[in-house]
Amino acid sequence: NNHKRNLMAISQIAREEEIPILVVLLPIWRELNGNYEFSEIHDLLDKAIADEGLYSINMAPGAENVYEEALEYLINPRVDPKDYDHPNYKGHRRIADMIYEKLVQEKLLPQ
Hints:
It is built from 3 helices and 2 strands. By secondary structure, the protein is mainly alpha-helical. The longest helix has 17 residues, at about 90-105.
């Protein structure tokens, strides 16, 4: 269970240094749909992160995350026909908004 050991090590350092850690679990952008095959993995990772006292944002599609047409979040194939996994401006904007909302919600922004 390497991921569990790694999360434990990160958590220990975060506690010692008093540094809040926020982990963002990104989806595979080209596969956003009602039957997202990695939802269970996202949920397991999200729980493991929380169990170590770290903050997380699970961006997998589901009850809390509803995406419009998945292709709206992908880099335009005319811009880069080989890139099927990275988000475009709209996808990055969604990531940034969710990070900001989580930082505010958890009171992690400096006063």
